[in-house]
UniProtKB/TrEMBL annotation:
Gene Ontology BP terms: methylation
One term of GO molecular function: nucleic acid binding
PROSITE patterns: N6_MTASE
Protein name, UniProt field: MT-A70
The organism of origin for this protein: Bradyrhizobium brasilense
C-alpha cells in the first residue's frame, strides 16, 4: 500500500500538490511504524530532489511531511509501548515473566533499533506527539512562514523552533511586565526600547542651510547630558535606536568617564570617543548592534541633491545599541533590510519616514517604546504602546499623559 505512493518526483505544481496532499493523508492514516518510516524516508528523498531543482516551496513541503511523519511516529511508539511494548535491547533480553531465556528472546517485542529508529529520533518524535494538535499546527505554521522568508538552510527541528519561540515570547512578556511594574512602583515607566532623533547642533556655525533655521538645536554636551538623564528611564535589558548625521557619527568628542584603577579607586577622566558612542554610553548602552541606512532618494528622483561640503549627503544613519541582554532576536518574518529608500522632501525638514516606527514596533514585538524629540500627528501616528516626548509630539507625551 505504502510502496505504491511516490512523493519524490519534482513535476508540475498541480501534480506535486496532489502528491503532497496524498502523503499528508497517508501519514495521518498510518497504523504501523514501518509505514511512517517509509513515508519519512520518501520525504527526505523529496527534499533532496527539491534542493537539486532549487524548488524551495517543494523543499518546505518535504520537511513539513517529515515533521508530520515524526509526530505520527511518536504517537505510534507511545501506543505500542502501552500495548505490546518495546524491548530495551541488550543481551541477554529478560522480562518479568517466568519463561525461559530462549523463549523470552524468541517472543520479545521489537527494539527501536530493529524498527530503524535511533534514540534521538524516538525522543524527538515522542516529544512532538505530546503537543496538543492546535499547538503543533500553530508551530508548524510559524515555521513555514519563517522558512518562506529565509534564503539560507532550512531547519528540520520543530522542537527547537518551538523552544526559541517560547523563549522569545517569554522575554518580551517579561520586558512588558517589568515596564508596567515600574509605573506602579515609582510612578515613572522604564522602557525596554527607546527611539530618538537628537536636534544636533552643527559645528561650522549657522548658515542658510543650517538646522537652526528649522528648529531649536542642542550642543553636543547638552545632548550627552540629556542622554545621561535618561538612564533611569530604561530597563536593564533594552535596545536604543538613534538617528545621527554622517558627519557627526564618528566625530571625536571629549566626554567624562569614571575609571577604576589598580588600587580600586575611581577617577573621572576625559576620553575622546566617537560622538555617537558618547551619547549612547551616557544613556547606559554598552554595545553597538547594527546600523540602518535611510536613502533620501527614490527611483523617480534618483538625483535629488543633498546638502554637504565634501559630499552630497543623500542618506542618514539610524544606529542601534544594546543594554544588557537587549530584547530577544526577532522572528525571521520580523527582520527588515538595512536600507530603506524614500524621498525626504515630501516629508518635510528632518522628519523621518514612518517606516522606521513600524520597523521598530515589529522587531521589538510590541513592547513599550519611548520616542524622544518626537514629531507625530494624525498623518504620522505613533504605534500602539508607544509614548513620546518632544516639541512636536501632538498627542501621547512622556508617560502616556496627554500633551496640553
Amino acid at each position: 500500500m505504502i510502496g505504491a505512493l511516490s512523493i519524490v518526483e519534482v513535476g508540475p505544481a498541480g501534480t506535486a500538490l496532489s502528491r503532497y496532499d496524498a502523503a499528508c493523508r497517508a501519514i495521518a492514516e498510518a497504523v504501523a511504524v514501518d509505514e511512517v518510516m517509509q513515508l519519512r524516508d520518501q520525504a527526505d528523498m523529496m527534499r533532496a530532489a527539491a534542493r537539486i531543482a532549487k524548488n524551495r516551496n517543494l523543499e518546505i513541503q518535504a520537511i513539513e511531511l517529515r515533521m508530520r511523519g515524526e509526530r505520527k511516529l511518536g504517537e505510534l511508539i507511545k501506543a505500542q509501548k502501552e500495548t505490546v511494548g518495546l524491548a530495551k535491547g541488550g543481551t541477554p533480553y529478560r522480562d518479568s515473566s517466568t519463561r525461559t531465556q530462549s523463549e523470552q528472546v524468541e517472543n520479545r517485542p521489537p527494539t527501536l533499533e530493529e524498527a530503524g529508529i535511533d534514540r534521538k529520533l524516538s525522543s524527538r518524535a515522542q516529544k512532538m506527539a505530546t503537543m496538543p494538535p492546535d499547538e503543533f499546527e500553530d508551530l508548524l505554521g510559524t515555521w513555514k512562514e519563517e522558512s518562506a522568508a529565509l534564503d539560507g538552510r532550512l531547519t528540520t527541528d520543530l522542537l527547537r523552533v518551538g523552544a526559541e519561540e517560547r523563549q522569545r515570547q517569554a522575554r518580551r512578556d517579561l520586558a512588558q511586565t517589568l515596564s508596567d511594574a515600574s509605573v506602579e512602583m515609582t510612578g515613572q515607566r522604564k522602557y525596554p526600547a527607546i527611539y530618538f532623533d537628537p536636534p544636533w547642533k552643527r559645528k561650522q556655525g549657522i548658515t542658510d542651510r543650517s538646522y537652526e533655521n528649522h528648529y531649536v538645536t542642542m550642543t553636543w554636551d547638552q545632548i550627552i547630558a540629556w542622554a545621561r538623564s535618561m538612564r533611569d528611564r530604561l530597563l536593564d535589558d533594552a535596545w536604543g535606536f538613534m538617528w545621527v548625521p554622517r558627519a557627526h557619527a564618528f566625530a571625536l568628542h571629549s566626554t567624562p568617564y569614571e575609571v577604576t584603577i589598580g588600587d580600586g579607586t575611581v577617577h573621572e577622566v576625559a576620553i575622546k570617543t566617537p560622538l555617537a558612542w558618547a551619547v549612547a554610553s551616557a544613556m547606559g548602552f554598552d554595545a553597538f548592534s547594527t546600523c540602518f541606512v535611510w536613502t533620501k532618494t527614490d527611483e523617480e528622483q534618483p538625483d535629488d541633491v543633498g546638502t554637504g561640503i565634501l559630499v552630497r549627503d543623500q542618506d542618514e544613519l539610524l544606529l542601534m545599541f544594546k543594554k544588557g541582554r537587549g530584547l530577544p532576536k526577532p522572528r525571521s518574518t520580523e527582520i527588515f533590510g538595512s536600507n530603506h529608500r524614500e524621498r525626504s522632501k515630501p516629508l518635510g525638514h528632518s522628519r523621518k519616514p514612518q517606516h522606521y516606527r513600524e520597523m521598530i514596533a515589529k522587531i521589538t514585538g510590541g513592547v513599550a517604546v519611548l520616542e524622544c524629540f518626537a514629531r507625530h500627528d494624525g498623518r504620522y501616528p505613533l504605534p500602539a504602546n508607544w509614548d513620546s516626548w518632544g516639541n512636536e509630539a501632538s498627542d501621547r507625551s512622556l508617560d502616556g499623559a496627554l500633551r496640553q
